[in-house]
Amino acid sequence: MRYTPLVYSLLTATLAVSALPEKQRPLQNNLGPAMPPPPSDSPSTSDPSGGDTVILSDVLGNDRSINIFAGFTRDFATISQRFEDSALNTTILAPVNSAIMGLPRKPWEDPKDYDELGANAYEGGDGEERAQRNLRRFVEQHCVAASPWKEGEKLKTLAGDEIWWESKDGVKMIQPGKIEVSSVASRVHNGEVWILKGVRNYA
Question: Where are the domains of the chain?
């Protein structure tokens, strides 16, 4: 059986459940006027004058549209620790769930592995290690070790690739690849979470 990380299956199931309509609840007339929820793209911010400092690890899991990618990041201690470190700034480029689910191959699959090792490339202990290595590279391709990140500024991802972003007609695009940024979900003390409509090249 080909290697499939448990988190991918669990998050896929979670995504399916979260898409189900909620049951209607009777109105209660002792709660006062209803208040609309905040916009989904309104950024979370740290409050310098307040008590605790909000950091990336506090907000990455808040948006259900990127919970698959958020789950992947938790598989790797060094990445999770970076998001928890208020002294290390990061811009997280989180693809939406639908972009990950629509990939022609899983984030931990590499065509080179199949070319060299065949269909059983991810079988057994060695195969699992290979898949974890590939998945880590996928996550690192979507993290830039800086924030704030200025337009046109060429920076390296945690995987070592050089990327930048540009704005056209008010839309942010990650280059190379012309990947559209749908929103900046969070701005916190040690970085930002950008939601991408697509996935960076991860081969």
Answer: 6-17+44-150+185-196
